[in-house]
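pinging the channel bc i need a second pair of eyes. not urgent but kinda urgent?? the chain im working w is below, pasted from the shared doc
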Amino acid sequence: PMRWLVALLLLWTASARAAEPVDLALVLVSDVSRSIDDSEFDLQKHGYATAFTDRGVLTAIKAGPIGAIAVQYIEFASSYEVKTVVDWAVIRDDDSARAFAQKLLEAPRSYWGRTAIGSGIAAAVKALAESGFEAQRRVIDVCGDGTNNNGPDVGLVRDEAVENGITINGLAIINDHPVSWTYAHVQPPGGLDKYYRENVAGGVGTFVLVVHDFESFGAAIKRKLINEIADSGTRRRM
């Protein structure tokens, strides 16, 4: 019957995709909660888009044993506001990098709610489990400007991810001029980078980068991506 043929075709397609090897499966998890203003939102989107088309990043991708990475982009706010904005894309050359960057830039902002970092990480873990790619390394990058104030305990979600061999890195956007009602959220005791190191980041070779503006964000993204892509076992801390 036709339905069996369709089922077999779907199984074949799934197995064919599962066989596709990549050097790195990377999920970018970006905070779009209400403390992220329009300039910070643009900073995240344009920073990633610019970085993936950077010559140094593309050189690092091509230098890998396989010469390709798989990337997915997720936005989150509160626990029920988590969305895959750009589904898995394989980047191996200029054209595929530009296509990914274009999709990223064209996508509208998803949410404005509270900040459920744990929910964002949980969605990324699920995405990695269901990706179908045979990845040498699995990494989640969390980018945000505040602490977890909604949804599951971020430390527990982080620990489960690390136990499954996933590395979580952090990009802490420092809000230097917070409004009064967000002060404790965006500038916790010891600083947001300390909070990210203790509660968000984890795994082998994990690191947290601090960014204050577009220039430092772009440079940080490029350094981070090159570090993650070029990492072939001799992991180093940035």
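so The longest strand covers residues 21-31. and Confidence is low (pLDDT under 50) at residues 232-238. — does that match what u expected or am i reading it wrong
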